[in-house]
Structures are given as structure tokens and as C-alpha cells.
Please model this.
Amino acid sequence: MVSNIKKRELEAQQQTPNQSTKSTIRGSTMEGWDPSTKSTLTQIPLLSTKAGPRDGAAWTQRLKEEYRSLIAYTSMNKSKDNDWFRIAANADGTRWTGKCWYVHNLLKYEFDLQFDIPVTYPSTAPEIELPQLDGKTQKMYRGGKICLTVHFKPLWAKNCPRFGIAHALCLGLAPWLAAEVPILVDSGMVKHKDDTASASES
Amino acid sequence: MDEELLELQRQFEFAQQAKSSIRLSDRNVVELVQKLHDLRIIDFDLLHTVSGKEYITPEQLSLEIVTEIEKLGRVSLIDLADATGVDLYHVEKQTQRIVSNDASLTLINGEVISTSYWDTVAEEINDRLQECSQIALAEIAGQLQVGSELIATVLEPRLGTLVKGRLEGGQLYTPAYVSRVNAMVCGASRGITVPTNLSAVWSSLQMLLQEMDGASGVAVESSFFQTLFNGLVKEGEILGSLRAGVHWTPAVFAIAQKESVDSFFSQNSFISYEFLHKLGIPQPIQYLQSRHPEGIPLESIFVHPSTIEMLDAAAEDAIERNSWIDSLSVLPASFASQDASRILSLCRSVQVAVKSNKALILGESYVFGMGFVKDLFDRMEKETEICNLSGFSGTVRDDLHAAEEAKTGKETSSTIAESNEIVNVSSTNKQGFEKGSKKRKGKSAGKTGPAETGPDTQEPTVPSKSKKNQRKGKDTGSFQVLDAKSGAKKESDRTKEDNLFVSEEWLIEKTMSLFPEFDEQGMDDPETILRPLANHVRPMLLNSWKERRKVAFTDNAQRMKRVLDNLQRKIDESFLNMQLYEKALDLFEDDQSTSVILHRHLLRTTATSIADTVLLNLDIHDKIKNGIEVEESQNPESKSLSSGERIAFAKSLPGLLSVKAVALVESLEGKSVESFVTAFRAMAEESGLTLKKLDKKLERTLLHSYRKDLISQVSAEVDPVPLLPKVVSLLYIQVHNKALQAPGRAISVAVSRLKEKLDDSAYKILMDYHTATVALLALMSAATGDDEDCTSDRVLTKKELLEGLMPELKGLVLSSSQS
Model:
């Protein structure tokens, strides 16, 4: 019921894409994610400017929107006691680096995180890399790029340009971590590093 | 570099650096609460919601429930569970507690309903009822989604207060509606004048209501009518009595019924059950007995005792008068014969009479005095006698019958041509008619006493042969019943009637003719009574008839015996004589001509008389045997028969006897005594007679008696002519010791034969006398043609001469015999 209504709304917005800056997530294939992800995703502010790193002022505008949504997402995570990453961008905002972590069995596993903004962004989603885990799991391309679910790409394509980095993290990396880390830990591929964990905690 | 962008970068950095708020997970909270419970810090029950996110105290829950209930006054437990978000189990528990504490609440079928709710509902119902004037409970229940029984129980206390109407058979009615229907019921009930099944009335009323209300009208249940009706009856609005709940007998009808029954009964002193059935009284006997305890129930009728008294008196009278009575004729027409028999059994005098054998009840309703039955029996007995007589004398029978028919014809004053004819026919025969009239006199006089009937004078003789016939007739009689019935009066059927002797039909017919009142009664079928009567009388009649037959039989046998004895005696005597005489013939064996003459003489005299006697007696015997009346007074011996008659008699004898008899008769015409004797012996043997042989002793005694006889005759004889043969005979006895019967012609020879035996003087006297006699006879025989003067003189002289000789001759014989 809810999805039907939303679908209808999204369709209406598709017909008039430029009339409203405030828009909602488009797409009927939200079923691929768990309910908490979905509720979180809907709360992340959507973006409006369609611009890549080579678009100059438009990109700056876009970058501002990216930051706003990231801030909102981060503060939301914090308020829910669900903070799980730190990122920072270079000056022109094309390369983002940072860390992400996942708590499994009361132990925090932290990994390096990095990705570049592709030239065709936002039509193309950024490819998130976890270099430390390269070669440790099959759900990963060469160079530590994570494999996203089949649902991600169509949803991203449908919601271009409204989805940004925050959405990509929320939809892409967070589920991946939740799915893969327990397997990696249990299989012994990833060992807990007490010092890094305690350092990040403190 | 854009300021804003930098600012944003900073903000983002700051946001990332900000201390994230610490949150306890649900699980932690649950664990904490558990811990608190364990530590007795929370020492009361805590409930949690279905979602598991909230804790709630029972007090709060009950509070919430109460508020929920108060909103509408009616909440289902499931709705409560949803609204409070607490498990149904706890909701139920709490609700039960609340309901038990609050009297105004009820928990019904998983719903909590308050009284106020019902009040509102009742108000709503009342509003609707005032609009529609009637509502079905089922309809309300359907709308409220509760059971109609619940509705009924809820509505009942509110009827008349909140709901202005009445509940009847699952329907709610307004008083106006009820009063209307009540009026209808009242009208319909008052309109009923005959006993009616009320359900039929109700259905018609229902139809009427439906027509008035149209299709929308709710079907009014007949129980509603019934209660209204019962109310009306109780109030006395309508009068009558209700039986088995549905059978309504209006008082008008009951009164009319009672009156008509009472009036009929008091007027007629009887009443038939059929009449009561017509009046619609299903159990007439009980009805009548309860109302008229003195009455007597019969098979199909109820009578007052006075009727019995009346019948009793009539029957008693009839019995005393030795008459009969048909109780149906005394009783009213509606009495059936079974009733009559029942009522007769209640008549005291009749019962007493029956017990003491003074009366007889036949055919259920007929009472006969014993005297009457006896009378009938007597007369019937006589009738049978007549019948027996007429059975073998056709003309007499016919005449009697004709006379009888004439009589019946006259008495019933019917002018049937046929019977008139018969009268004519019968009047031609004087004798028969006289008999008939005699009989009639007797009968008309015999009304009070036993009748003297004419044919009494005739002694009834029932021959055995006809008996046999009648027996056969009885056997076959049944086949001829129908014929006899239909054509009883036709002459052609008379022969059949003979066969039907003492059959039921015959008896009935006779009774009818003897007591024409049976016919006059105008009964549909007189046989109804006549048949039992005939059946009653018939065995007695048959008995008496059999007895009589037996008597007649023995009587006849005696008679036959007597005849045969007589015959035997006569034959004995004469046959002995004959044998005696025959012996004398031996003397003349040598003389052929004389012998022949003597033989002939003997045959013609003694033998003939013997044959005649035998034939006549046998004929009588035969007749008796065949049941033919014979004049006994006649002396058969005195008769002498011609040869033709003899032959006729002989031929009339039965069988072999006839042949023998004819031979005997023929031997009479012959010349030899021996042949007669043999023929006679044969015949005697055939007829069962015994012939005595002559022995010496018997011969002597016979001769002696013969001699004495002759002596007395001779001494007494005055006529000179017949003296001679007697003297000669006497002389023969004296001389030869043999009895000679000699005719006149043989006298001379006989006399001449005596010549050697007698002394001369005697012989001379004899001869002289003989010659004188011969001369006299010659003269006498000649005198007829000749001159009278001289011959008569001569005869006279000769006679004188002979008379002169007589003493001598007598002396001759008598002296010798005396010596």
C-alpha cells in the first residue's frame, strides 16, 4: 500500500522533474533492503542538482547538497547511536577517504574506506572500496571494490540525481558490511585489532 | 573556494566528531526491567503490549478498558485488545474483573455491553416500532448482531417503559397494532358458530393481514392470534370452550347442540349416535351418559329406560298371548336390529321369560312366545303330514295345495290372476276344496288355540319308499331353493316343493301362509325373521317327523305281519283241507273221468279260494309295503275273483312273485290238483309263507272235525238236494276215512263206489235217494222250458218223496257215525 502510493508520487514527479526541489525516492524495488535501511534511507535528504566533477559551479552546488545530506545522515546515525563511518573529501571533492566499522559480537571491526567520484556522476554510482579486505571475500571486485546488490544499480539509476554519497553509503556499504563482516570474522579472514578498536572508541 | 562549501565541510566534520548519543537497545531495557523485577524494586505486575515495546500496569489497562467501554457502551474483547495493544488473555481477565465489579456491565459472547447501551438500543427500537407498528426480533437481532434471545431478554424488562409495544412470538407490536389484531381475532371468533379448528381461522386471518399490509407486512404468527384469543376467552369477550388448544366450540353452538339433543331425547326418549355425530359430538356415548345418567347406551342409539319399559310391556303381552312381536315394530324406526337385541337383553320380563323357556328371541329383534312357537310347530307338523299324504296321491296333494293357495290368496286379499285360476281349478274338485276350507276354518279358529285341521282324520302312513325319495330330495333340495322361491306358486314347481319338504324355504313359505301377518308387516324381507324361526322350528319338526316315521314304520310292519299271519292261518287251514280232499281223490284214481271231474271240482272250489286268499292278501301286503292305504275292514275272503282279476292281481305282484302267482292262477285252470299244489308251494316259498304237511295225527283230527261238521250239517239239513253230497261225504269218511269233495256229477260214481262197503239196505237207500235226487234235479232243470203245471207237480212229488227218504238217509249216516 505504502509503496504503491509512493510509486504514484514518484511517477508524478518524474513527469515534472524540475518543478519541485524536494523529492522522494523513486523506485518500486525497495524490497531488497531490510526495514531499518529503508526507513533510514527515506530520512536522508535527497539531492536535486545533476552535476559531475567537471561541471564547475554546478558541481560545487552539488557538493554542497552532498555535504548537507551527509550531515543529516551522520547526525541521524549519531542520534540513533548508530555511527559507523568517518569520511572526508579532498579539496575539489572528487576523492573521499575515511574509515568504516561494524560491531560483531561486541567487537568492533574497522576498515579503511575510499572511493572516487566518477566523471559521469551522478549517473554512475561511486565505487566504494575497502582495500584492507581485497582478496578476502568473493563479494568484491579487484582493488577492494565491493559488490553491491542487484537492487542497487536500478534504484540508483531511477533516482538519479536525487541520490548522493550518503545514499550510496547507506544503500551500498552498510548492508554489505552487515552481511559480510560476520562471515569474514567467523571464517577467520578478519581478525579483531584491539588497539584500532579502542583507539576509535576513545 | 566557496565559503558555504567550506562551512559545510566544517559542519560535516563537526557532525562527524560530535559525540554520538548513547542508546539502550530494547533488549537491554527488557533485561533491565527483568532485573528490577528480580530485585523486587518493581513489586507489581507489569504487562507488556503485543508489540513488546511497552509495559503497562493492570490498573492502567483496566482504566483504558473502562474508557473504551464508556465510549459506546458496547465493545468486543477483540477490539479492546487491539485498542489497548495488550494480549487478549490479559484483556479478558481485566474485563472479567471489571464486569464482575460493575453490575451495569455484562459480558456476552465476547462483548462487554453496558445497560446504558441497551437503553439506547431500546429507544431506537421504540422509535422504529412506532414507525412500523411491528418489528421482528430476528430483524433487530440481525442489525445489532446479537442473538434474538438476548434481545428478547433485554427487551422484556423495557417493554411498556422504553419500548411501547408488546412482544409476541418473536415479534414486537405496538399497542395499536395489537388492538387491531385483537379486534380482528375477536370478530373472527365471534363469527364462528360451529366448532372450528382455530389454526384454520388464524391462517385466514393471516392472509387477510397480509392483504392489508401488502408485501411489506410481516407474517403474524398464529401463536400471536392464539394468545390474543386466549386473552379474549379469559376476559369473557367470546364465549365457548377450547379443547386441545385448537378446537374451539362456541358457546352458541354448544348451547344449540345441547338443546337439540335434550329436546330430541326428551321428546323421543331415545337419540341415535348418528344424530349426535351430525351435531358434531364426537363421543356420543360419553356425552349422553354424562348428561343423562339414567339413559342406556345401545349399539347405535341411546335410550331412556321408559322405552325399555314400553318394549318390555309389549313383549310381555306378546309372550302372554302366545303371540310374537317384532321389537323393531314397537321401537322407533331408527333402531337397528343390534339395538333391538341389546334392548331386549335389558327387558326384565323378556329375560325372565327366556330363562324360564317361555319366550324365544330370534333374529335379534323378534320375540316369540313359546306358545306361538309350539302352535307353529304343531301346525307345521300337520303340514308335513299333509305333505306326506299328498306326496303319493297326486290329485289330493294338488287339490290341497290349490285350496291352500286359494286361501292365502283370499286372506291376503290379493287378486292375483294366477291364484284365482287356482281357485277355479280347485273348486272343480269338490272334495279337495272342502278339505281346504275345513282346514281354513281350523286355522282361523286356531289363532288362539291349537288348530284342528281337516286332514287329521286321515291316518298318516309313510311308506318306506317315499321316505327314501324324500331323503334324496332333501339332499338335492338346496339346489332347487332358488327355483322354489321364485316360482313357488306355480303349479309346475309343485313336484319340486315335494322335494323341499321341511327345507328352510318350505318352512318359511308355510309360515308365511299360516301367519300372513308376517307378510302384512310390510317388512322388507320377511325372511329375516322367518329364516331364524324356521331354523328354530325345523330341527324339532324334523325330529317329530322322524319319530312319526318310525312309529309309522313299526305300525306298518305290524300290519304287514298281521296280514301275513292272517294269510298264513287261512292258508294253513285251507291248504290242509285241500290236502285232505286231495287224498280222497286217490280213491278214484282208476276211474279216469271221475277223477278228472273230482280234480276239477277241487281246483275250482278249495284251490280257487286258497289262491284268491293268497292273491288278495299278498296284494294287500304289497300295498301296505308301498304305503298305499288299504281298507282293512274288508274281508278279503269274502271276495271271489274272476280269472281275469286273478291274473291282474298276480301280475301286479312284485318281481318273481308275480311269475309264480301267474303260474298258480294258470294251474287253477288245469286239471291236476298236483300241479296246483306244486305251483302253490313255489309261490308260498317265494312269498315267505310256510305250508304245513299233512301228517297222520293232523289228518285224523281234521277228519274228525270234518266228520263232526258234516254230521251236524247233515242232521240240520232240510233241503233234500244238498243233503246227498254231504251224506256221501260223510259215508266216505266213515268208510274210507277220507274226505271227499265231490261235485254233483261225481256223486253217482261215488255212490256206486260205496256199494261194496255198505250193506245192501243202506246202499239201496242211498241209491234210491240218489236216483230220486237226480230225477228231481232233472225235472227242475227241465221245468224251465216245459209246462209248469205238471212239472211243478212232479217236482213237488219228487221232493216229497225225497223228504220222505231223508230221515232214512240221515239215519243211515248218523247212526253209523254215532255207533
Observations:
- The two ends of chain A are 45 Å apart (CA to CA).
- Residues 9-22 of chain A have pLDDT under 50 and may be disordered.
